[in-house]
Amino acid sequence: MPSDGTPRTGRTATSRRGDRETRARILRAAEVLAMRKGYSGTTMASISREAGVHPGSVYWFFKDKDAVFAAAIREFYARESEARELDERPFDRVLRIMTDAIESERRLGQWRFNALLLLDPVFENTESRRAFLEVRRKIKLRLTEHWIARLPGGVPENLPADLASTALAIVDGALLAAASGDDVDLQWLAQAIVDMMDATVAAAWAMASEEHEARDDAALARERGLDLDSD
Questions:
Q1: Is the pLDDT of residue 86 over 70?
Q2: Residues near 103 by Cβ (< 8 Å), separated by ≥ 6?
Q3: Measured between alpha carbons, how far is 189 from 96 in angstroms, rounded to an integer?
Q4: What is the mean pLDDT of residues 142-167?
Q5: 118 and 132 in contact (C-beta within 8 Å)?
Q6: Which residue has the higher pLDDT, 209 or 220?
Q7: The pTM is what?
Q8: How many angstroms separate the CA atoms of 56 and 46, rounded?
Q9: Cβ-contact 29, 51 below 8 angstroms
């Protein structure tokens, strides 16, 4: 079986369907145990018990628990990405993302688990951590593409990526506050994020307009033989 747990080819349709269902049960069990017991407290045996499958079935799909968790992280991201609506207003989209993350025990638990993978050096060389960083890069790329589409040409090359990182940091901060038991005013925070986005876009377009006008003035001056730099 491939290390990512995908079923082998050459099997009957019924067998492949059974493989997919068993694999899905294993990954759901891994998500539950990640929230309940964490990485270190989970074993392949506990995954098989939680999934209700034979221990050999878990090893049939995955070589170890690190491979199980890595696949679960990628699967979680794939499901969440498919569920996102693209036609929402920015405020509604930001508010929903944060509300879903904070009020859903499953999503908040997943965030805690991922944060541990990222921050604890003991997990530095694990496939699970690499999977989380891979997912994080995909999320940042999608946010960066969003900013590129909204910003005018000529802005600093790193600005869209920096804005994407800022948005992720704000959401992370809200999740950390919620995990710490603090009250988080999601309505206010969502509006603050959208206001920051709008102000940044407006400032970028204003700067681009000023630069465009300056270039037009310089071109007109050259046509008339004027030297704008002279006293």
A1: no
A2: none
A3: 12
A4: 84
A5: yes
A6: 209
A7: 0.74
A8: 12
A9: yes
